[in-house]
Design goal:
The protein is of the alpha+beta class and 397 residues long. It folds into 2 domains: 174 residues, FAD/NAD(P)-binding domain; 154 residues, D-Amino Acid Oxidase, subunit A, domain 2 (D-Amino Acid Oxidase, Chain A, domain 2), CATH 3.30.9. The protein contains 10 helices and 20 strands. The strands form 4 sheets. Strands 4, 5, 6, 13, 14, 15, 16, 17 and 18 form a 9-stranded mixed sheet that branches. A 6-stranded mixed sheet has the order 8-2-1-12-20-19. α2 packs parallel to α6, α2 crosses α9 and α3 crosses α9. 47% of the residues are buried. The mean pLDDT is 94. The protein binds flavin-adenine dinucleotide.
Length: 397
């Protein structure tokens, strides 16, 4: 059966062993991994189209570099799982730039990652210039290259996971909204959608920036807020020798990655001074002209070859932020049968396969992987937040 033919149906089941709320990359990955574990019936509910939330506008960049041991391990495992799929990974390499104040911290972080086997190469300004002739390195003191990093197509990847899940018998219902989760004696009882009620004992909340809205009916508060971030889309005129890397410019606070053809996506990487906390249902999805122009100017300044590039437009999207900019994963602390995979804070795409794998093992086999356990919800109440081992100065780590 083709996925497109099965979506948006009205034959919602009245019972299901597991209900997954959210058809972004995370919900679809969980559905795919869960579908290989012998669960009788799995239902995924998405209120819009698959991949219509944060996933749709994701940079979908995949890397292993992180600043804590367990996130490095998760990113490594996740990349391996991506490589086992048929999803095309553009391994174009990722270049990171830093100013003088972060030189030693960069060296510590690179060593930390290298100790975990991540392939990273420290670059002096001379070496960066050799790699990218005519780059303007004002205020740059040091950089490093992650040659095996790259990016994928976020929508294709979501549909790949969804298709695999569907072929293994998962029921996928788009344009169906979960209105509430019913709980009795601290156990999951059912979910109510705008197309009917499904009795179930297991619910996975993978609702991204909407996660706390749907959780209201369970009385467990999730510390998640929706941050509006903006991306500019530019088309370069230099058809010969196009700029090929994903660029993380931690000096001027931008990132850029190649897109289709000769186009590039430029976003904001630092501090989010220009970002607002918004309601995920009522936010301006268009870009602010001055902000995306500013994104483009910063790239032009760093890479003068972009001076004659065209600003094609831009858009706004949501990061589902938590107080320590890391996700909430695993079991609810209050309700039996409720699981979370939410709050990815702008870096969840690359982690989606490992999240799907670990969550499905927890749900079906009750395997509490130590990696997963780091992201439990209680860390916010006992003030045991996740922190980078070597935090960079003057930036969101
Ligand atoms: C601009 C941008 C760039 C990014 N770049 C990267 C990157 O380069 N690398 C990286 O690793 N990460 C990146 N991220 C982060 C990554 O894209 C997200 O962490 C990831 O896509 C989150 O997926 P999700 O499935 O949790 O959320 P979403 O994709 O938002 O999916 C949640 C889904 O739940 C549905 N939903 C909500 N409420 C209900 C309900 N009541 N009933 C039914 N359905 C409901 C929504 O419609 C939505 O489709 C980026 C994010 C953004 C916004």
């Amino acid at each position: 059966m083709k996925l497109q033919d099965t979506l948006n149906q009205n034959n919602l089941p009245t019972k299901s062993d597991v209900v997954i709320i959210g058809g972004g990359i995370i919900g679809c990955s969980i559905a795919m991994f869960l579908s290989t574990k012998g669960v009788n019936s799995i239902t995924l509910i998405e209120m819009n189209s698959l991949s219509s939330g944060a996933t749709h506008k994701s940079g979908a960049m995949i890397r292993e570099f992180y600043q804590t041991d367990f996130l490095i391990e998760m990113a490594k495992e996740s990349k391996k799982l991506f490589e086992k799929t048929e999803i095309k990974i553009n391994k174009n390499g990722r270049l990171y730039l830093f100013s003088k104040e972060n030189k030693e911290i960069v060296e510590q972080n690179v060593k930390l990652n290298q100790d975990h086997g991540v392939n990273l190469e420290i670059l002096s300004t001379e070496q960066i210039e050799k790699l990218i002739p005519n780059i303007n390195l004002s205020n740059v003191e040091i950089g490093f290259l992650e040659p095996n990093a790259g990016y994928v197509d976020s929508v294709d990847s979501t549909y790949y996971f969804a298709n695999e899940a569907l072929n293994n018998g998962v029921g996928i219902f788009t344009h169906t909204k979960v209105e509430s989760i019913e709980v009795k004696n601290d156990k999951i009882k059912s979910v109510t959608t705008d197309k009917g009620k499904i009795e179930t004992s297991i619910v996975v909340n993978a609702a991204g920036a909407w996660a706390n809205y749907i959780n209201k009916s369970t009385n467990e508060n999730l510390p998640i807020f929706a941050l509006r971030v903006q991306q500019a889309l530019v088309k370069s005129n230099s058809y010969f020798d196009p700029f090929k890397y994903c660029l993380m410019d931690y000096v001027n606070g931008t990132y850029m990655r190649p897109d289709d053809g000769n186009s590039y996506i430029i976003g904001e990487e630092l501090g989010f001074e220009q970002s607002d906390i918004v309601s995920p249902d009522f936010y301006n999805q268009s870009a602010d002209e001055n902000i995306i122009l500013n994104h483009k100017l910063k790239i032009e300044n760093r890479l003068p070859r972009f001076k004659d590039s065209i600003l094609k437009g831009g858009h706004a999207a949501l990061y589902d932020m938590t107080p320590d900019a890391n996700p909430i994963l695993g079991k609810s602390t209050k309700i039996k049968g409720l699981f979370y995979a939410v709050g990815f804070s702008g870096h969840g795409f690359k982690l989606s396969p490992i999240i799907g794998k670990l969550l499905s093992e927890l749900i079906v086999e009750n395997i509490k992987d130590p990696l997963l356990d780091k992201f439990n919800l209680t860390r916010f109440t006992i003030k045991n937040l996740i922190k980078p081992k070597f935090p960079f100065k003057n930036m969101l780590n």
